[in-house]
Amino acid sequence: YHLALGHSPTAALADKLQLIIIQVPLSNFYESLIFFSWCLPALGLLAFRRYLKGYLGAMVALLSTLLLAYASFGVDSQIKPLMPALKSNWLLIHVVTAFLGYAAFALAFGTAILYLFQERRPRPSLPPLPLLDSLIYRTTVLGFLMLTLGIATGAVWAETAWGRYWSWDPKETWSLITWFIYAALLHARHL
Fold first, then answer.
1. Tell me: the pLDDT tens digits for 72-120?
2. Residue 109: exposed, middle, or buried by beta-carbon count in 10 A (0-12, 13-18, 19+)?
3. Are 157 and 90 a contacting pair, CB within 8 Å?
4. pTM for the predicted model, two decimal places
5. Left if phi > 0, otherwise alpha if psi is -120 to 50, otherwise beta: which for 28?
6. How far apart are CA 46 and CA 49, in angstroms?
7. If pLDDT is split at 50, 70 and 90, which confidence band does 146 have?
8. Residue 107: CA count within 13 A, CB half-sphere
């Protein structure tokens, strides 16, 4: 222990350690995929806490495994410093809420697949259709709320970074279109 304390790391290692410690691990595609793959089981435990056994747990694990496999094959995992516009607490809040929304929508998608299997060929090991429908609805509402927060915090971050709330960037536009589609879906359910 004393020998290890006596040695100082090289300058390059110290710079990398400082970059890892200071920067939130959501700066590139690889880190975002890793965070997304951890959001799925976390939200699965939150949304399906009483029902996360059997097929529901396997579905959550399969979605997370597929994301981790995609992240580990061919995605650049190099840690690089952030550009100054990306160094903001609003960006962190925006990215976290957006990815939690995406994770909730992915859980709703996986549960909808189980719903289709249960509807076509009922199995006693799968949850009943009303329960699956309720879980789909709950995760969709959670995803919609998180997507709403993600769009709002993204607009605030964009205003602090670039001086305007909305610039009709393709990513902004498609997130708004997605928001309208889910709003119509949730509205139609109550009719």
1. 887 776 766 667 666 777 888 888 899 899 999 998 998 899 899 888 9
2. middle
3. yes
4. 0.79
5. beta
6. 5
7. very high
8. 36
